[in-house]
Design goal:
Blueprint: E1 6-10, E2 16-17, E3 33-37, E4 71-72, H1 77-82, E5 87-88, E6 92-97, H2 103-116, E7 121-125, H3 130-139, E8 148-150, H4 155-164, E9 170-174, H5 191-208, E10 211-217, H6 229-233, E11 236-242, E12 248-256, E13 264-270, E14 273-276, H7 280-286, E15 295-302, E16 305-317, E17 325-328, H8 332-346, E18 353-359, H9 371-383, E19 391-393, E20 396-397, E21 403-404, H10 409-418, E22 423-427, E23 440-444, H11 447-455
Parallel strand pairs: 6-10, 6-11, 7-8, 7-9, 9-10, 15-19, 17-18, 19-22, 22-23
Antiparallel strand pairs: 1-2, 1-3, 4-5, 11-12, 12-13, 13-14, 15-16, 16-18, 20-21
The protein binds thymidine-5'-diphosphate (TYD) and magnesium ion.
Length: 463
């Protein structure tokens, strides 16, 4: 008998090594490498299968008949918007998020809404027993709908059940980490199993025309647990996010083969489940102290995702010989640079002041684009003049004091506008950048322009 081929697969990034190691060389994580039987995994094929000769497939021209991707609409606007206008039939969608953030709640509400609109929905729960799911459905007032429930984790059993039933419009799998397949030898929850399970469900979606929504857990780094390769296999990837202690949740698209990826859906978690938030700005601005000097909203990007965060600065006369510089959530050297530019080019004297800088919500910013927001917050705190509450800031500051353009300006502005902001202070923008009617922009070419404006309490428009 042939010796089974073993390989060692990192459970974090999916990279394969020939031997066990304590640390994955590709993603740098410790203790993530697990021995798996690769012969039974994806690409291994059924054991003992003979080599099959390929079958020629038709070659087609680019032009020809096509149809608009047919979509099923949940009428939950925030969800439909995040998906680019509804769920495309035959597509596979991955929804990631921290445990307890409300993924199961969102999908149960979506299932109920779709069912009320006449679509057939199957909800496969691998994490909770039928009774638990029923309890939640009752709480969400979804129990009276025709959503069909299955508590199952074996992929082959799920597919067999779906083949028996009337073809559903939507299948929800909660979650991919509980899926396991007879075809893969590894333990449930390993990369090989998750990949095999997702691949089987994606194939089902394409073959049957039913849409499949897969729930995925997120690791502490904020990535969908298991290999990134799962994200490549599906048509759309959404993240369901929220901040600790807050009730708002954001459904954010990071990949969508059938729509834009800069849309977000905003919800609020309450006693009766998730409520759509039509005007998110109220929610976000409500938690800020608009009158306080020293707070600036930075329109940032997290990878491909736009995020708005508040940067808070406190500048106070120092009693120490060497003033304090404390930073949370940003680069210390970067702060030193902005302070130096403010001193050298703008005449802002901070040498006798303690400076504290904090990024609200425990965020960490790594972008130089935050320079301008930091400078605005610092000057505002020093001068005691609050910044306009509906204004966002972004731009990189160079040592000469000039403000340089940053990437994704249009995306930042779009996110800011979506969240209710109406002014932006930004670098001189390229002429082809799309401008929105509702947003007014103040272009700063050099830092002294900003300082002069902040000191009189102005934002993008004249106060
Ligand atoms: P859940 O959907 O189970 O999260 P996930 O599937 O992402 O792990 O949501 C669980 C949390 O949501 C839990 O902390 C309780 C809260 N919740 C409410 O506040 N109201 C509700 O109506 C429901 C159903 C849940
Ligand atoms: Mg859940």
């Amino acid at each position: 008998m042939a010796k089974p081929k073993l390989s060692f697969i990192c459970q974090n990034c999916g990279s394969v090594t020939a031997r066990w190691q304590g640390k994955c060389e590709s993603c740098g994580e410790w203790n993530t490498i697990v021995e798996e039987n690769s012969a039974g995994g994806i690409g291994g094929g059924p054991q003992g299968a003979s080599r099959r000769r390929g079958r020629p497939s038709a070659l087609l021209p680019l032009s020809g008949e096509m149809e608009e991707a047919p979509r099923i609409i949940s009428k939950i606007d925030e969800l439909d918007r995040a998906l680019g206008g509804g769920i495309v039939r035959g597509s596979a969608i991955l929804i990631g998020g921290d445990p307890g953030i409300g993924k199961s709640t969102l999908l149960m509400q979506a299932a109920a809404a779709l069912s009320r609109n006449g679509h057939s929905v199957v909800y496969v729960s691998g994490e909770e027993a039928v009774a638990q799911v029923r309890l939640r459905a009752q709480r969400l007032k979804a129990a009276d709908t025709d959503v069909q429930l299955m508590a199952e984790t074996n992929v082959e059993d799920i597919l067999a059940t779906l083949a028996e039933a009337r073809r559903p419009d939507l299948v929800i799998i909660d979650s991919i980490q509980t899926l396991w397949s007879d075809m893969a030898d590894s333990a449930p929850g390993t990369v090989t199993q998750v990949r095999a399970g997702v691949q089987a469900m994606v194939r089902f979606a394409k073959a049957s025309g039913a849409a499949v929504i897969l729930v995925g857990h997120v690791t502490k780094e904020g990535q969908i647990a298991g290999p990134r390769v799962v994200e490549h296999m599906v048509d759309a990837v959404l993240y369901f996010e929220g901040e600790g202690g807050h009730h708002y949740r954001i459904l954010r698209t990071v990949k969508n083969r059938f729509g834009p990826t800069d849309e977000i859906g905003v919800f609020e978690m309450g006693d009766l489940g998730l409520r759509e938030v039509q005007n998110p700005s109220e929610l976000f601005l409500g938690e800020r102290n608009e009158k306080a000097p020293g707070a600036a909203v930075f329109a940032g990007m997290e990878g491909t995702r736009p995020v708005l965060v508040e940067i808070q600065a406190l500048v106070a006369p120092s009693a120490l010989g060497t003033p304090r510089r404390a930073v949370l959530g940003w680069d210390q050297p970067r702060l030193a640079m902005v302070l130096a530019v403010l001193e050298a080019h703008c005449g802002v004297r901070l040498g006798q002041h303690d400076v504290y800088l904090n990024v609200a919500g425990g965020f960490r910013i790594s972008e130089p684009a935050a320079d301008l927001a930091v400078a605005a917050a610092l000057v505002s705190s020093l001068s005691g003049a609050p910044l306009p509450s509906d204004c966002v800031y972004f731009g990189e500051i160079s040592l000469s004091g000039s403000v340089r353009p940053v990437a994704h300006a249009a995306q930042r502005l779009k996110e800011a506008e979506k969240l209710g902001f109406r002014q932006a202070v930004l670098p001189s923008a390229p002429a082809d950048m799309p401008r929105s009617r509702d947003m007014s922009g103040f272009e700063v070419e050099a830092l002294p322009d900003l300082v002069a404006r902040v000191a009189v309490g102005g934002g993008a428009t004249d106060a």
